Automatic annotation (TrEMBL):
Protein name: Class I SAM-dependent methyltransferase
UniProt key word Acetylation: no
Gene3D superfamilies, per the entry: Vaccinia Virus protein VP39
Source species of the chain: Streptomyces iconiensis
Pfam family, one: Methyltransf_23
InterPro entries reported for this sequence: SAM-dependent_MTases_sf
Record-listed E.C. numbers: 2.1.-.-
């Protein structure tokens, strides 16, 4: 994870009001550790890494463009960093994030993603997407429009350098 995304996530976490040293149950969606981790930001948390492919940091395999399984664990916090730009159906993934949050808890989703102006890059850390790999930057307005119907509180910011969108969403709207 590049330093700007790590810093953006730390800011959103501070703005959320969440106590960082509590034993939260955190789902790290897209949790395969490719180029760094954010787990030190919540050092007392119980982390579960979820990804579509096995790898370092992955505890649970699931295609999160499909609904969260009824038998799967629920979480206080979902963190999704640098994933959306690699997923064609990323709005479905955000709906799955909301489904994975336990009601009555913090119900907090933190997202970082490549956005307007960011050069393409590969999902596994390569400087370019692999042949056949999906890649599209996620515009901040589209991110906000997708999260709005899912959460009561949505804050989306954009950082031109390096071209990232950051989102904090809280309190899942019941469906």
């Amino acid at each position: 994870m590049h330093p700007e995304a790590h810093a953006g996530l730390a800011r959103m976490l501070a703005d959320s009001g969440l106590t960082p040293d509590a034993p939260w149950r955190v789902l790290d969606l897209g949790g395969r550790n490719i180029n760094g981790s954010i787990r030190a930001l919540l050092p007392a948390a119980e982390w579960t890494g979820c990804d579509i492919e096995p790898g370092p940091g992955v505890d649970l395999l699931h295609d999160c463009t499909t609904p969260w399984p009824a038998h799967a664990p629920q979480f206080d916090v979902v963190v999704c960093t640098e994933v959306l730009e690699h997923v064609e159906r990323w709005p479905l993934l955000l709906a799955t994030c909301a489904q994975a949050l336990v009601r009555g808890g913090p119900e907090l989703l933190l997202v970082t993603c490549a956005s307007d102006g960011r050069p393409p890059h590969g999902a596994a850390g390569a400087p370019q997407p692999a042949a056949g790999e999906w890649y599209r930057n996620v515009p901040p307005l589209a991110l906000n429009a997708t999260l709005g119907p899912l959460f009561e509180i949505v804050v989306v910011t954009y950082q031109a350098v390096p071209g990232d969108a950051y989102a904090r969403a809280q309190r899942v709207i019941p469906t």
